[in-house]
Amino acid sequence: IRSLTLTTSENQEVIMPNSELLSRAFVNLTHSDSSVRTTLYITTSYDDDPHKVVQILRDILYENADVLKEPPSQALLWDFGDFSVKYRIDFFVNLQKVSRSQVRSHLFMTIWDRFKAACITMPYPRREIYMKSGNMEQPASEEVSMLNAESKAAV
After folding, report:
1. Strand runs (DSSP E) across the chain, as ranges?
2. Residue 92: closest CA among 26, 29, 27
3. In sequence order, which residues have a C-beta less than 8 Å from that of residue 14 and are 6 or more positions away?
4. With contact defined as beta carbons under 8 Å apart, do 39 and 104 qualify?
5. Distance CA 81, CA 99 (A)
6. What is the pLDDT along the chain (155 residues), one digit of tens a residue?
7. Is the CB of residue 123 less than 8 Å from the CB of residue 44?
8. DSSP one-letter code for 83
9. Which residues face 53 on adjacent strands?
């Protein structure tokens, strides 16, 4: 059987029969250009100013030497979630010069540091569970003991 061996970005080899190459399209991310777009999603609290968040994200992208200036990067407010505001950043890297994973990691670390310095919080999902005891609804877990202690202190 005649075939072509392709190497993926994860260094896996894929053997494709020539008949597949002739009958199906495939994607070559770096055939004519070694720059590849990468997308990251970041969430923040609803208490944080989205204009400030977007500006910090844009600054981080602009200041990172491994992020290409052309095509331009984007920082966008993307969605309003159940627990957080979601942002999307798109940027391009040159795969011949740098690893996409390294740039992602560096950007995430920089975002963490800048958000901490600006008192911007990255929330985690929270759920309140109410347990019924007779006719009375009461929050479950540690909040129960805290609520009981507060009610005793108020008496």
Report:
1. 3-7, 13-17, 35-44, 74-80, 85-94, 130-133, 136-139
2. 29
3. 5, 6, 7, 8
4. no
5. 31
6. 688 887 776 677 888 888 887 788 767 666 667 888 999 999 999 999 999 999 999 999 999 999 999 999 999 999 999 889 999 999 999 988 999 999 999 999 999 999 999 999 998 877 777 777 765 555 555 554 555 555 445 44
7. yes
8. S
9. none
